[in-house]
Amino acid sequence: MTLGKFDFNNPKHLNPIIDRVVELWSPPTDDMVFRRLYVEAIIRQNAAGNDMQFQLSENGEIRSIAFASRLGEHTPWYGWWQEKFNSLPEEYQKMLSLSRDYLSLMDEKTYRYMDKDDVKLSLFVSVKSGWGKPVLEGAMDFFRSRGFKNLYLWTDCECNVDWYVSRGYELVEEGTYEPFSYDEPYKTYIFKKPCKETVQ
Q1: Is 199's pLDDT higher than 60?
Q2: In the chain, how many H helices and how many E strands?
Q3: Distance between CA atoms of 77 and 53, rounded to whole angstroms?
Q4: Structure letter (DSSP) for residue 149
Q5: Can you say whether residue 126 is alpha, beta or left, with left for phi > 0 and alpha for psi between -120 and 50 degrees?
Q6: 30, 43, 99, 172: which one has the fewest Cβ atoms less than 10 Å from its Cβ?
């Protein structure tokens, strides 16, 4: 296995991630082209364009990714986003805007807990079962080598929240995102873990 840097210009990096999460993260529409664009926008918004866009691969095939950001870092993909946004019909523009606003809000809420020597895990996807742990371990080794003290992350009820709880992450905030709360509350969570500990 090889820990390297994720390359957005390489479809062999991007497409497997989109394939893995498109059914989980995209809105309920029959337009698969838009659904893939929607998910790609989420992935790009969670990438800060820094030295912490990790990917784990095996025999040239991507298996998992972990993106992170320092306090106040944001995506450099605004130009890409605006170009795609302008080409969409109004209905799709509204969906994409709602997603962007949600991600931005949760990022800012998480940054409020952080100090300059903390780091935020922005995106974590395992394409193949069993590959999530090693990419996080590699990322945590990097964080410790750079002197980061705490790792923060946010997630929501569409993800496996218990996965983080069982691995020693401390819940620091639980909330509800009203625009996504339809039949029941759409719960959000912010977690914290010291970088000095090894991810289990």
Answers
A1: no
A2: 6, 7
A3: 14
A4: -
A5: beta
A6: 30
